[in-house]
Amino acid sequence: MDDTEFYMLVCLWVAIFIIAFLLLRVFFCWYWKINKRIALLEKQNELLEEILMQLRNAPEDRQ
Question: Which of 11, 16, 18, 60 is the most exposed place for a label (fewest CB within 10 A)?
């Protein structure tokens, strides 16, 4: 095996590894529902920001 074949083989293995990593990442994100969790946390942050703005704009004598 000469140097050219060796480098081609290394490039092939790197490409296979990257493709496998991306496919497994998509699968695990789906399986553990990570994308849905992120969306829910972003929605929660929006709601908390709205509550904070309402509390800041409320009158001071709330007793």
Answer: 60
